[in-house]
Amino acid sequence: MGMQTRTPFLKGDKLRLLIHRAKEELAFDAVVRQPNPLTVEIRSSPDDEALAALKVGACIVGAYPQKGLAYKFDVKKAEGRTLQLELISRYEMRDYVRVEVVVSLGYEIVGRADESDEAEERNDKEFIDAESITKAGVLDQPVAELISTMCQEIKTLRDQVQAKAEYESAQVSPQHVSLSGSGIRFVSHLGIGLGDILRLSLSLPDMERPILSTGRVVRVETGGKPGKGTGVACRFLDLSDGDREAIIRFVFQTQRQMLRRMKLLS
Q1: CA 201, 205, 209, 213 torsion: positive or negative?
Q2: pLDDT, tens digit (0-9, with 9 covering 90-100), for 132-177
Q3: What is the CATH number of the domain that holds 226?
Q4: In a domain, 7, yes or no
Q5: Distance CA 249, CA 15 (A)
Q6: 3-state secondary structure of 214
Q7: Cβ distance 3 to 88 under 8 Å?
Q8: Any alpha helices (H) in the chain, and if so which ranges?
């Protein structure tokens, strides 16, 4: 059953609808056409496949930026770009509140979606081969174990050197981004694909060090003007709790500053 009969939304309110599918996150801009029953119209321009994900029975998250809240919904009816939603519950929105801002961002592709499994399998095989030396009985046990340990240490050192080289080659520059505690969206001119893994360096004002994280590409937005780049949305994979809190504080602080400026101009 839904959370309540009446909804806290008004006609014309803007919502950001999110739905997760495997390695992909779909996002849609919507506007409330009727508050009760809650009926919204998709205003962004998703392709037919993305729009098909908003089917009857789908569970989605709706971010409500005007009030800094979010809710879970069930899709009760779906007719083209018009959805009737049933409000299920409040949703913790801190990670999903986002702000459009200019920050210093550097990034590098460190893993392709179609290569990650193959690379992991190859690395495992290297270590298994080292173990097989021990089991084969060709060498004395202490010598075989030493060789196995050395192989593992060499592999670890190789991975560290490779990761360091890839990170240092990233270009850090001011960029317009959409930032939240869960991820970041930006425009890229690299050939980034859905599911790719990026190494990210993000510098926020008043922070002495950059925030470092890896991120998985959950959405690639094509179809823009030639030469303008591709929209890339990344979900943070290994962000520390401290860095996530720093981003969330920055997002809320920036939003408050924007609201104060809007009040001064009105």
Answers
A1: negative
A2: 555 555 556 666 667 767 777 776 666 655 555 443 345 778 999 9
A3: 2.40.10.220
A4: no
A5: 22
A6: strand
A7: yes
A8: 48-52, 116-136, 141-168, 241-265
Last residue of a domain, one of 61, 91, 121: 91
Domain-embedded: residue 6? no
Average pLDDT, the chain: 77
Per-residue model confidence as pLDDT tens digits over 27-42: 888 999 999 899 999 9
pLDDT at 62: 82
SS3 category, 124: helix
Each residue's pLDDT tens digit, 179-238: 988 899 999 888 888 999 999 999 998 788 999 999 999 888 876 666 678 899 999 998
In the numeric block, which tokens belong to residue 259?
């609201």
Considering the domain boundaries, does residue 27 fall inside one? yes
Helix (H, G, I), strand (E, B) or coil at 66: coil
Q: Which amino acid is at 264?
A: L
Residue type, 132: S
The answer to whether 186 touches 105, Cβ cutoff 8 Å, is: yes
Three-state secondary-structure class, residue 140: coil
Whether residue 151 is contained in a domain is answered as yes
Do 197 and 144 share a structural domain? no
CA distances from 3 to 40, 55, 85, 197 (A): 18, 20, 12, 38
Question: Structural domain of residue 30, as residue ranges?
Answer: 14-91
Q: How many domains does the chain have?
A: 3
Domain shared by 232 and 103, yes or no = yes
Reported as a single tens digit per residue, the pLDDT across 40-79 is 999 887 777 788 888 899 888 887 766 666 788 999 999 9
d(C-alpha 66, C-alpha 15), whole Å = 9
